[in-house]
Every structure is written in structure tokens, then in C-alpha cells.
Amino acid sequence: MSLDPDDPDEFRAAAHRLLDACLDQFEAARDRPWQPVPGDTSAGYALDRGLGVGEAALAQRLADEVLPHGTGNTHPRFFGWVHGTGLASGLMSELVAATMNANLGGRDHGAVYIERAVIDWARGVFGFPDTASGVLVTGTSQATVIALACARLRALGPGVRQHGQGAARLTTYAGAGVHNATKKALELLGIGGGNLRCLPETRSGVDIPAMRAAIAADRADGAQPFAIIGSAGTVDLGRFDDLHALADLARDEGLWLHVDGAFGAWTRLAGTPWAGLTDGIDRADSLACDFHKWMYVPYECGMVLVRDEAAHRGAFAARPSYLAGQARGLAGGEPWFCDYGTDLSRGNRALKVWAALVAYGPDRLGAAIADNCAGAAQMGALVSDDPHMALLAPVVSNLCVFTADARLDAGAQSALNIRIAQDLQLSGAAVFSTVAIDGITALRAAITNHRTRPKDVAHAIAAVARARDAG
Ligand SMILES: *Cc1c(COP(=O)(O)O)cnc(C)c1O
User: Fold this and answer.
1) Hey, whose CA ends up nearest to atom 5 of ligand 1?
2) Which long-range contacts link 15-20 to residues 24+ away (Cβ below 8 Å)?
């Protein structure tokens, strides 16, 4: 008894039809915005009937019932949250990854070499030394947990794995715009979200003297400062911290510098002036970033790089006898990626990154990133030119945060912006998300979309103006 297809010819024909359906949808991405999910969809997915129908019937259901109901982030006027777009190379690499079904926890096989090649390449992009380690993970959230576990090991020593952190009160420092992922990581590690100090930000990132003072105050209070978090692109307003200044501070204070570069780190590839936003990133002790946002690769794929491989390995390596490495054969090769994170069994995330780099190259990916920054600047200019709209934060890279009608009071502006975001989502005109800034719920566009063209940006802002004036 096997679960392979009973009829290989029928399977092949059905799989070809499904591939064509995927390619059709891929080619039509510009015409398919998010649409409300039909009311009967959820019931249709319920696993209480229609089971065991075989691959051909499955292929039909995948094409008819599953494919149409995505998030819409494949559409060129999707600017919500920070969603990547996907790539044709990813469609190919996911097919190959599923066929190989490799487990990248470790051992000696081709897929592991692909991940090592991706980490090597990323080390070069960010100026990390050849001795730095790295691992691909689900996303920046997981990467942050791993990085801060390494930082804690550095602060408390390897005994923390056996004994926990005892009475040590570890404290962490970041700008007010730091992503919630850092707080969650501190909660999860038992350090406590309340030990994250969120300091005021200026236009050029977190206020460094304020951070220095907070570190001194905590030391005087008996706490043990252990890490500084630099943001290379805050999620709400797109601010970049001065990473050189943070690296100097971390050096002076003997602290670990972790950089959250979830999307913004990739401005490194975008040339002048965008690449300069992350100057100093090569001085970080660890870096977390995503390939699934601004490198456009399919979900899910993030990465952590750690300058000190010994701290990385020290925080996670554990090989019971059944996982012992061997001199020859499948159990050979180093490193095993299970020694750099929490996951033992791991999918082939690296292949979709490798595939994107092989297909497009860093220059073309970087040009798409620069294009997105230009799109945000264009949006900012259109907002400024409109008699009633107003920017609520300067456009730094790919984020544009604005209000549709600055004549109204804060409450009315918020209500209007929320209504417009919803109306445009439901009509398929464009997807903006919202964010609160200075008491106003603003419209927010984060352009991490290689399909967005200037006409899409113009169309979206015109739709905002129409929705406002129609209200
Ligand atoms: C998205 C994001 C995260 C979380 O990353 P995930 O890949 O969603 O886990 C962390 N920090 C910033 C700045 C982000 O934009």
C-alpha cells in the first residue's frame, strides 16, 4: 500500500492542468485584486465530507476553490502592511522543493549546500565576516528570538541553557517604533516585555543620548542591560536608526547590537541614495530580515545572521546520539542548520531565495526595490499636491503615511481614513492599511511590490480623493 497515484498518467495530466491554472492566475495577477471571500467558502473547505477523492479531483478543487482566494498581495495596487509580491522563480522553486522534499535540519545533501550558498551571499551583502553564521527561518519574528537568545547567552554565559536566567534582570533598548516582534521575543525568552525600553525617535531614528541615559539608569537600578535593537526601517513610519551611532553605543556599553531589518535591510541592494540608510549594518552582532517582504520571494522566508558563530552555536547546538555527525556519508557535512535555531526538521526555504538570485540577480532585485522607493516618493508628492491630503510623516524609503483630509479634526480624519481604506479594499481599487500617528488613524502604504508602476500609484491616490469626495 502506498500513497502514490494509482494512475500515474491521470496524475500527470491533472498536475499539468493544475500548473496551467497556476500560470494563468500568475499571468493575470494585474487584473486580480483581493476580493471578499464568498460566504460559502468556509463551509466548502470543511473536512467533513468529500475526502479521499484522489489527486485528479483534488487538482480540480485546488484550481477552482483555493487558487482564487488569496490575500491579493500579488496585485500591483496592494500596499497594505508589508506584504511581498511573489516571483515567477518562486513558482518554479516551490515545485522543485516539494518534489525533492528535502529536510534541511542537517546532513550532507544538495539542499543544505543551497542554504549555505544563500547565507554566504547574504553575509557579503551586509558586510558580515566569513566566520559569521546564519540560518533561514519562518520570518523576522523567529529570527529575533534566535538573535536575542544568542545575545542572552553572551550576557549570562552558557549556563543559562541549563539553569535559566535566575534573578538576572536583563534590559533591552530600542526606538519607540521597534516592531512588536522584539517584545514578543523577550516575552518568549522569559526576559519580559516590560524590560524593553522604548525611547523617543527623532527624524534620524532613535534618540541616542536618551538611550545612553536609560542604560545608565537601569544599571544604577541593578538591572543588567544586554542588548540594543536598531531598526532598519520601522514598520509604522519607515524610519531608519543611525546604525553607526548605535554600534558605537553598543561598543562603549559592552552590549549586543541586534538590527531588525525585516524589510528595510534590503535597501542595501537599491543603490544610491537608499543603500546609505543602512550604513553601519556591518557592525551589528546580529541581523534579522525577511526575504518574503522586500526580496519578493514567496512566503515564508526570513533569516538571521550572527557575527559570533560560537555564540550562535552555543545558544542552540544540541545533538543527541541519534543526530551525531559522521565522517562520511549522509550524516556528514557541517554546519547542520539545526544547531543554529529551534527547528530540527526544516523545509527548503533557501531554494526560493537561490532561485530568485539566479533568475534575476541582485542588481535587478535592487532596481525593483529602488523603484518601490520611487513609488513611495511619487505617492508622497501626489499627496502633497492634493489641496486637502497631508503627509503625516516624511517619506524615507517605501512607506507613505498620510491623511485624506487634513481640514477635519483628528476623530473625523481617523473615521474618514478607515472608511476609505475599507472602501478601496472592497472595490478592488487599492489596498492601503492604517496606522495611528499623533492621535490620527492614517492611511499607510508600504510598497514592497515589484508590479507597482507609476500609473498604479496615481490611480490609487485618485481613488482616495474620489472616495473622500464621495463621502
Ligand atoms: C514584518 C516585520 C517583522 C516581523 O517579521 P515577520 O517576517 O512577519 O515575522 C519585524 N520587524 C519589522 C520591522 C517588520 O516589518
Assistant:
1) 140
2) 15/55, 15/59, 17/59, 17/63, 18/59, 18/62, 18/63, 19/95
